[in-house]
Specification:
The complex is a heterodimer of chains A (106) and B (130).
Chain A: H1 3-28, H2 30-52, H3 56-72, H4 74-88, H5 91-102
Helix pairs in contact in A: 1-2, 1-4, 1-5, 2-3, 3-4
Chain B: H1 2-35, H2 39-55, H3 57-72, H4 74-84, H5 106-129
Classes of the chains: A mainly alpha (106), B mainly alpha (130).
């Protein structure tokens, strides 16, 4: 296998592990799940309010999105949210840099 | 297997609905910013929604997803992958030293310090010989 490709696969695997950690935590501790759901509800409501402004339609759209994103597909959305959160903090760049420099010889 | 396929289809359909809601909100916000709450604004909103959501969703859905990924900074990951990680290997080019790996332990740090001290000693000795 190409050496650089090998490093990329390891970096992808690290991203996957990072996205899976909160899902694992939420399935192990119900308190973590409740907390994550509250955070997601607030995040969805503030996002919709930013787009639509205050009003009934904001609450209706938020409710639809909360049903899908917080209750029906909680695990998927939580993983994506944590991934996006770390992306916003530029934390993934640190992981790429760390893994990339450490595994360059392989 | 069939159940898994049905469940994947359901997930796909549900996420399509969620994405369509986000697209409608984006169009609404854009129209409201540009046209205000006028009749023309509602006409533009309706026409744009018709084309984007119903007529050409297969194109605009992908474009919106790509736009969101760029907005979240995924391009930064690509830059890190292909430019920063792909830097010169350690001691690769003639006389050039590649990026060093991050220090992970005290032992490694001590090793690096010893290596630096050795290099400085060698430099001083070669300087004195002149």
């Amino acid at each position: 296998m190409d050496q650089k490709g090998n490093v990329l696969l390891i970096i992808f695997a690290a991203f996957l592990v990072i996205a899976l950690i909160p899902i694992l935590l939420s399935s192990l501790f119900w308190q973590f799940k409740i907390l994550a759901q509250i955070i997601l509800v607030f995040m969805i409501y503030s996002t919709v309010r930013g787009f639509m402004g205050p009003g009934y339609i904001t609450i209706v759209i938020s409710a639809i999105l909360v049903y899908f994103m917080v209750f029906k597909y909680f695990e998927i959305v939580l993983g994506l949210y944590v991934f996006q959160f770390l992306l916003g903090l530029q934390f993934l760049s640190v992981i790429i840099w760390g893994l990339g420099t450490r595994l360059r010889g392989y | 297997m069939l159940t898994l396929l049905f469940s994947l289809g359901e997930i796909w359909a549900d996420f399509n609905i969620v994405l369509k809601i986000f697209v409608i909100m984006t169009i609404y916000s854009w129209v409201k910013n540009h046209f205000g709450n006028s009749v023309l604004g509602w006409v533009v909103f309706g026409a744009t929604c018709f084309f984007v959501i119903f007529e050409l969703w297969s194109i605009f859905g992908g474009i919106y997803l790509f736009y969101m990924l760029l907005l979240f900074g995924v391009s930064q990951i690509l830059i890190d992958f292909f430019f920063i990680t792909a830097g010169a290997p350690p001691g690769g080019a003639a006389g050039q030293k590649g990026l060093e790996s991050p220090v992970s332990s005290g032992k490694e740090l001590a090793g690096r310090q010893a290596q630096m001290a050795h290099a400085q000693r060698n430099f001083a000795q070669s300087f004195m010989r002149r």
